Structures are given as structure tokens and as C-alpha cells.
# Entry
Amino acid sequence: MQTSGAPTRPNVAVRPGLATVGVLVGTFAPFAVTGLAYAAVDARFAVGVPILPVLVGLFALRAFNGFAVSAVLHRWGAHAGVWLWPPLRDALRIWAWLWTGLGVRTWAAVHRRHHAEPDGPDALFTPSGPRGFLAIGPMTLRTHWEAIRDPEPWARFVRDLPDDALERFIRGEERRLFGILGIRVPLLVGLHVLPWMLVAPPATAALLGVCTLPATVGAVTSGAVWLVNGLGHTAGWRPHATPDTSTNIARIDVWLMGEGLHNNHHARPADPNFAHAPGEFDPTYAALRVLEAVGAARLERRAG
Ligand SMILES: [Zn+2]
Ligand SMILES: [Zn+2]
# Structure
């Protein structure tokens, strides 16, 4: 593992095998848990819906969730790399909040601070710290909770971002323990249970809804927290000589919708395209180009 004294040579590979294994485990383990839990419920209650289309559908949902978070919280909110048609932008803000529990101001404040100090003793969350990789989850959670409980010290990072009615509503939900004590979690539970009520009685539908949680909420957590914040500063490839420990953990990043090209992103944070070289692919950028073609987005193609 690299330490806070990050190498600055370009084209360095850092434990590439670990990056590949980490991406595969972090991506598919939540789906394996859901698949096993679903099989157990199906064996007991004979739901009769084949597991494969269920998992494929959940993977597509995860991809859309990843797109929403990357497009609106990250590329629009934190880095102003894209303009989004306001109705689409606000729909994506609501969808991203539903899955992360965070509004754009909290998310962007923490993220901009991460860019300002990604490693070292004062980093908000870093796998190169004394507590190592496993602490990345609790550190990320604690940092966001601190920004929610006492937003004043963080306000200087987000003075350019909207503090509109939607943001104030989301902030209220954030303060209710990320929406656990608000309406967000009941809404999420409803989203997970209601579709199953078309094919199963309510008690079984509730069980099936719980089974899908690892592949939805768990996949968002494992992707954004463990893979990007953790593995993306631990192992992979460093095409850019950035003064930090950031790595690309996949070249064709269909797993994290482009966020896995993390070293590229640290090198050019305002660039809305995280793929910088032939052979790299950033699905969120590709989707934003489609939206641009129909007038719903405008990419700020900056190199900085
Ligand atoms: Zn980073
Ligand atoms: Zn960023």
C-alpha cells in the first residue's frame, strides 16, 4: 500500500491484481448475497420468479443509481463540469438523495475537501492512514455526519451551490439520521417491497424486499465508499503523476459508471470525461453526451 508520501511518477501500477480482485468482489458480492437470500426465500415460499432476470434488473438499477450520483452530485455539484436541464437535474438530485441519504451541498462539501487534502494526517478518509483500509467506511460515514450536524465550517466549500427548497428538505432528512428517522428509508423500503407484491403475498413480498437490499443499498455503499474512497487510493494504475495516492481501479469502468477512473479524475477534476486514454471507457460521460445531443445537458469540456 502506498503511504501519504505518494509517488509522482506516471504509469505506475500499484498492486494491480488486488485492484482487479477488489473490483470484482466489491461489485458482485452484494449481488451474491441477494441471490442466496432470494434462493432461500424462493425455496420456502415458491415465489416462482427466476433469479437471473431479478439480478440483471438490480444490476441495471445499480448502474442507473451510479449514473445519478456521478452525474448530479459529482460532475454537476462538486465540479461544475456539466450543466443539466433543471427538471432533469432536480429529478437526479432526488434520486441520488434517495440512495445516498445526502444532498448536493453535503456531498460536494465533503468531496471538495477530499480533493483539497486526499491523503496525509488531516485527510477526511484515507486508506493510507494509521487505521488502514477497513476504517474507510466508518471514516466516510463519520465525516458526512459531522458535515450534516454542523454545516457551518463546511459552508465555504459550497457557496456556489443552490440552497433551494429541495436542498432544505433534503437537509432536514439528512439530520434525521440520513433519513432513517425521516421519510427516506420508508420510501426506500416501499420501493423494494411494492414490486414484489405483484407476485407474492405481503409478508413474502416484505422478505423479498429485504433480500434485494444488499444489491441496491449495499452496492451503492460498496461502490462509492469501499471501491472509490478505499481501493481507489490503494491499488490499481496511476497513468497520471498526481501528488496523491489515487489510482484507476478499472480501465473500462462499467462497474462504477466511470468513478473507478479515480486517478484520471484527481489529475483533472473539472473534466467531465473521466476516460483519458484509448481503451478507457466512462459510461456516465457517454450517457451525458447522449443527453447533450437532445439538449438536456451541456458538457463543460475543460482540461483543468
Ligand atoms: Zn480520491
Ligand atoms: Zn471529484
